[in-house]
Amino acid sequence: MPETQARQVVEVGYGGNERLMMNMGPQHPSSHGVFRMILTLEGETVVAVDAVIGYLHRCHEKLGETLTYVQYPSIASKTDYVAAMTAELAYVSAVEQVAKIEVPRRAQYLRVIVAELQRIASHCLWLGTWCMDMGGALGGGATVFLYCIREREMVLDRFEELTGARLLYGFHQVGGTRYDVPPGWDKKVRETVDVIEARLDEYEAMLDANAFFRVRTQGVGVISRELAQSVGVSGPLIRGSGIGYDLRRAEPYSSYGDFDFVVPVETEGDCYARYLVRMVEFRQSIRIVRQALDGLPQGPISSRPGVKSVGQVRVPKGEGYARVEGARGEVGCYLVSDGGPKPYRLKWRGASFSNLAVLPHIVPGHKVADVVAIMGSVDPVFGEVDR
Amino acid sequence: MIAAFVVLNAVLVMVAYLTLLERKFAARMQSRIGPYYVGRPHGWLQPVADAIKLLLKEDIVPTAADRWVYNLAPIVFLLPCLLIFATIPFAPELGVADLNIGVLFFLAVSALEIVGLFMGGWGSNNKYALLSAMRAVNQIISYDLPFIFAALVPVVLAGSMQMSAIVAAQQGLWFVAYPLVGQLAFVAFLIATLAAENRVPFDILEAESELVAGFRVEYSGMKFALIQLGEYAHMLGTSFLGALLFLGGWLGPGPVALGPVWFVLKALLVFLVITWVRWSFVRIRVDQILAISWKLLLPATLVLLLATGLVVALRGAGGA
Amino acid sequence: MTAADASARIRDRFGIDAVADGGLGVTLPSQRWEEFARFARDELGCRYFNWLSAVDWKDQGFEVLCRLENLEAPLVVTMRTRLGAGEARCPTLTGLYRGADWMERECYDMFGVVFEGHPDLRRILLSDDWEGHPLRKDYAVDTAFTPYR
To answer: What element of type H or E holds C24?
Structure first.
């Protein structure tokens, strides 16, 4: 059905094909932030969806042009506030790439550890909120939500011990990391991942064999292989659609080549496939954390002087695009430098932006209840969508 | 008259504490504590605080609402939910009216709640509420039939529609333990109960993640409290019905005076099972709900009813 | 399909030498923008649309960039075009890639680059009544916008 035709709305008609325009958002329990969908309904079936974004736009790209290379990393964490570690990492990697700054191996390993812990925390939040979308705040989903939040808190506690912050860390800096691990931290991290690994079995016991969970997710919101590439989705979405594309494997940054892990691929492309992919990623992240802790090399944590004499970062004229595999997919920074103290142009390639762009292509034809299930399986963070 | 007054007030108090029970139970499931600070220990004053809060809240009527329908809906919704207690005896001779068509009365009146529901959804003039009202009609129509058929199994087994007669017929064997037909009917009854009470996984008309709060999205203050009250009263009533029909009502060890205690405990057991299901499943979709009813539950309960009839006929033949 | 292979085919077809910048950088005249994207998709296998954006080079005009990928090879092609001073028109890629829809809308929103042929070129991040395009270098950050400032 052509879009213009689908959007035609007959609110009260007696011809038998009335359409209802329903606004979902920007204030809505399952909009995961501020997101507005204008749904055109025929009965319970969605025939067209118009996605309105931008409510959380905070001019990140403009800010990038007005702040120096040292100032911006802590702002970068606010693009994707659920996985702040990887957002920071994308920015500092881009600066390091343009300025050709080497990163010591210890810092690279620390970056891997925090990135994987962040992925665990982010996936915890995803699983909880997604189940809440389907089960309702008062229903079974809330149970899973509270379990997941309990586990996420443990990871956030570890981050707090490391950086002093729980949500937006400012852990990375150009040339390395800002903090070294406190004494005894690695032991606590090991205990944390042990607990989480055991709890993952409980989630799976609660969800995998749950017939209602399956009927809500299987065959819902199918993203085909072609559509996934054409829109440019990444992360668990593209891996759920049969393409084993993971930047940690395809383009190993920050010494990811040293670690042994599996990139999960599912071919169904539906919500359940994305769930399976993420559940495997949980375990693989735990594996990587353990390997990185085992092999954590000694040495400096930054190739540049410490916090107090951080000074200016000199970046020569040039441009570069650095990307990392965040919890939601490819988080990239395109940086153009004119040799000055601030970037000339900074482009964020947010994973959620591209992932969310697939919604208008897969939602029509589903029921209203599926809209929230699909939306939750995409796992958008609106800080990253609207930037 | 006095009996009605006593039962009504007892029901209202029980409903208030039912909410506390549910919150505590859910909290334990989710490794939380639940209400705690309002009335120590363990928040026993929480329902009172809730009631006061709801009473003092501003009553908002949307400008575009159909005022009459909108204002009447909570009352129309609440009435049948309270009326169902009229036929429930709490012990032999202890009840408002032990009608000889008690079960029929209960089923007929409890199905009436849909009118208030639909009025609320329609009168709010809100699209979420309208969708929810449409879903409500779909669902209640689909699930009332299996609900009735499942409830008819004990009626057939007992050979009477009078509540006290049904309990009396369970003197030797509770119907939940009746070989095969009784057990299957109890399961079917529980499933249909979940749907008839709009509980997860069948709470599509509330569906706060899609329809925000469904038909009651525009209600606030006392009207919201009335709807909430009606919902829990209905749940309590159905739990009592379950205890009466399948769990032997007031039958239990100890002196006869303990009857009402056993009865309430059994009803609470049914309620807790419903709550347990509520906090462990996700909501299913409207088309799946209808499919479950028409393709599975309705034929199954029909066959069950037929089988029960056969059992009773054979038993009668053997006995005679 | 290796990078050298792709580079040779680009030279045959378009007479342009691709620059190695981690992937292949191809600078095109805007008339051949869509033609190259079609070539990249169909012949180079770059079916993955990564992102599209622009850079404002002040009096030298806008540069529009688009990053396409062949995930199997792997091969990255960054298309670039200079629109020329004072020019803000660029052909659209929406007919080839679905991801181009939102990316081009964002680029229009931020730079005012008009993608000709885009079916629904509205602002995406800013409100519809916003004046100006903030990522242009001549945009004054303190532009009044009632009632917010």
So the answer is: strand C24-28
Cα(A287)–Cα(A248) distance, rounded to whole angstroms?
14
Q: Higher-confidence residue: B201 or B317?
A: B201
Torsion of CA C55, C56, C60, C61, to 10 degrees: 90
Distance from CA of C8 to the nearest CA of A (A): 24
Helix-helix angle A271-294:A105-135, to 10 degrees:
150
Whether C105 and C124 have beta carbons less than 8 Å apart is answered as yes
Residues 265-294 of A with CB under 8 A from C: none
Distance CA(A158)–CA(A181), nearest Å, equals: 10
Res A10 pLDDT > 60: no
Backbone conformation region of residue C24, classed left if phi is above 0, alpha if psi is from -120 to 50, else beta: beta
pLDDT-based confidence at residue B319 (cuts at 50, 70, 90):
very low
Structure token pair of residue A10: 């007959």
A376 and A35 in contact (C-beta within 8 Å)? Answer: no
In chain A, the residue whose alpha carbon lies closest to the alpha carbon of C126 is A54
Confirm or reject contact between A357 and chain C (CB < 8 A): yes
Give the model's pLDDT for residue B83: 87
pLDDT in tens, B149-170: 888 888 888 888 888 888 888 8
Q: How many percent of chain C have pLDDT more than 70? A: 95
In the numeric block, the tokens 């890629």 are attached to C93
Say whether residue A361 is in contact with chain C using an 8 A CB cutoff. yes
Q: What distance in Å separates the CA atoms of residue B74 and residue B221, rounded to the nearest whole number? A: 12
| Span A311-328, pLDDT tens digits | 677 888 888 899 999 888
In this complex, do A354 and C55 lie within 8 Å of one another by their Cβ atoms?
Answer: no
- Does A53 sit within 8 Å of C98, measured CB to CB? no
Q: Name the residue among B273, B247, B245, B230 with its Cα closest to residue B103.
A: B245
Structure ipTM: 0.85
What residues of C are in contact with residue A53 (Cβ under 8 Å)? 124-125
Q: Using CB atoms, pick whichever of A30, A41, A210 lies closest to residue B281.
A: A210
Window from A56-60, B137-141, C18-22, C66-70 with minimum mean pLDDT: C18-22
Using a CB-CB cut-off of 8 Å, the residues of chain A touching C53 are: 334, 347
Of C96, C97, C118, the residue nearest C107 (C-alpha): C118
Angle between helices B298-319 and B181-196 (to 10 degrees): 150
What pLDDT band is residue B179 in, cutting at 50, 70 and 90?
confident
Using a CB-CB cut-off of 8 Å, the residues of chain A touching C48 are 229, 232
A20 touching B, CB under 8 A? yes
End-to-end CA distance of chain A: 32
Is the pLDDT at A15 greater than 70, yes or no? no
Q: Minimal Cα distance from B205: which residue of A?
A: A369
Q: Suggest the residue from A58, A321, A330, A354 to mutate for an interface test with chain C (most C CBs closer than 10 A).
A: A321
Instruction: Record the pTM.
Output: 0.85
Query: Rounded to a whole number, what is the distance in Å from the CA of A347 to chain B's nearest CA?
Result: 34
Nearest chain A residue to C21 by CA: give it: A320
